[in-house]
Amino acid sequence: MKTLAQQLGEFAAGLDASRIPPEVLEKARTCLLNSYGMALGGQRLPFAKVARTAAIATHGEVPGGATMLGDGRKTSIAGACLANGALFHARAQDDTCGAAHFGTVVIPMLTAMVESGYPAGRFLTAMVAGYEAGGELEQRYGNTTTTNGSRSTAIYGSIAAAAAGAHMMSLDAATTAAALAIATAMVGGNLHSATAGTDEWHYQPGFAASTGLTAASLARAGCLASPIAIEGDKGLIRTLAPSALAETPVLSPGTAWHINRATFKPFPVCAFNQTPVAAALRARADINAEDIVSLRVEMNPNEANYPGLNVQAPFSSIAATLLSLPFCVGAALLYGVPDTRRLNTFDDARLNSFADRIRIAPHPAVPPLSVVLLFTLRGGQTKRLETIMSARDFAYDRAAVSALVRRIGSEEGIPPAAYDAVESFVDRMPDADVKELLAAFAMPID
Q: Once rounded to an integer, what is the mean pLDDT over residues 85-92?
């Protein structure tokens, strides 16, 4: 029986555009537009600037290398992965597959590779290969590894990047399997910073991209890799989720197409806060926030227990506020949609006091991506608001993503011409010129 790395390696190496259904390629373009659009709207946030400083200190400036978007300087591909991964992840509105953000790992890496001379004609197929390799494992094991404290973006994103990078490098099936195995041996990224309210998680996508890229390069150079690195006795799954793997499964990449699972975020908050915020905005139409004595938020346990969701004030970073459900729901009830300005306001005594009335309650009867709000109001009156949603509600088409990123751009002072250029680039992929994309990020912000 073939190992997991061999199964995924054969798929990633053998994938070509003729095997990808048109609707899957369209979803890939939608993910591209969301990623580039959210990156444009995240330029005012501090994370990319920090990552750029680190990238230059570590990799230096590289004439003819890959551009740090929104900055203009060029560095190595790995350095651009760090800088641009932080930019794409800045608003936390990247696409989501389960608990993994593959777009913010794979897309900056592939963009840097194309700018550095790799064939643009392989971009979309490499992207789909990455989502499939990471998605096959995340769907099977992501809930368990997340519960055990590992972040899916860091773990499965590294594997996605290895598959995408190997495809872009035109590696054969055996060498691609080796790249996946090497990435598996190098992955890392826990969820502690989400609980601590600190910034490390913003930089994990860049590390994941660099890990996958390096793994593919090592495999191409001849590194000997264990074929059972994923499912072996001390391999990835048995180390991070020992109860989740009874035997080596037969995978089916290219059947359900995991990129079709990708959902998008209307609000700049954690994926698991999207429905609670939407529900709070509904409730705001009928309930005066000043009348709320307490609010119990019932959620699916896999979401309610996600690190960082149950954190209360004091806050000192947007990395903490966008994860905190009490803060995000409280902001929605008091002020409306929580934008980045609100998320960056840590000393709002009214909001912090109000958020202290909000408590999360795991409830197994609540479906994923759904929520029940139980209000206790002045005078003892209670109200119950149930909001049932699914991934389908967040699986926007390209037109909806266009409207979303342009709305954000209008809030952030991004010129509409930048979105015109990005949409033209995405529409013409894989035949577009990367210079058009670079020009969009070079446009001045109001």
A: 97
Cα(304)–Cα(92) distance, integer angstroms: 18
Q: Looking at residue 371, what is its pLDDT?
A: 98
Contact of 38 with 281, CB cutoff 8 Å: no
CA 114 from centre of chain: 21
Mean pLDDT of all residues in 377-400: 96
Distance CA(388)–CA(83), nearest Å, equals 37
> 52 pLDDT exceeds 90?
yes
Fold of 271-391: 60s Ribosomal Protein L30; Chain: A; (3.30.1330)
247 pLDDT band, cuts 50/70/90, is confident
Q: Which fold has domain 4-264+395-442?
A: 2-methylcitrate dehydratase PrpD (1.10.4100)
Domain boundaries, the chain: 4-264+395-442, 271-391
The rounded distance, in Å, linking the Cα atoms of 397 and 27 is 8
- Give the predicted TM-score (pTM) of the model: 0.95
Q: Quick check: 149 pLDDT over 80?
A: yes
Question: CA–CA separation, 302 vs 273, rounded Å?
Answer: 13
Give CB contacts under 8 A, 24+ apart, made by 339-344. 339/268, 339/411, 340/44, 340/45, 340/91, 340/268, 340/412, 343/268, 343/269, 343/318, 344/318
Dist. CA 60–CA 54, nearest whole Å: 9
pLDDT of residue 368: 95
Contact 70, 85 (CB under 8 A): no
Buried residues in 188-217 as b, exposed as e (16+ CB within 10 A): ebbbebbbbbebbbbbbbbbbbbbbbbbbb
Confidence band (pLDDT; 50, 70, 90) for 399? very high
